[in-house]
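Can't paste images in this forum, so I'm doing it all in text. The chain is below; anyone willing to post the predicted structure tokens underneath?
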Amino acid sequence: MTHAEAREAVYGRFTEQWDGATPVAYDGSPGFTEPNPPTAWARVSVRHLESSQDTLGAATARQFRRQMSIIVQVFSPAVSSIAPLDTLVTAARAIWEGQTFNGISILGGVQTFEAPQDGVWLQTNVEALADYYEVI
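Text version of the structure:
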């Protein structure tokens, strides 16, 4: 699996599992316009991290373990209570926690980080560490 294939697998899983709960922006996908309150929304990003070579051998037969961070930023209008944001964060966490899909394994628990209010938005980030293998 390549970097691009891994990213697309993550985006595909999120789209399928999120099931239209809010509009979604995907990093690298043009054409998204941030909605106005009271519409909540999410942004999904993949950040590749370290790699390790697991096998030796000739080109096309070497296996590399790739790690990545999957980040879901969930935004909810600050004019409402925090309860809608918490509901969306719980749903985002459930998409990743303890999951293996398309050759991608989520490592350990999923973390959440509350951000300070930014203008009209409340924000919580959901982060999952994952790995997959690439043969090159």
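The beta strands are 24-26, 41-53, 63-77, 100-101, 104-118, 121-135. The chain has a mean pLDDT of 93.
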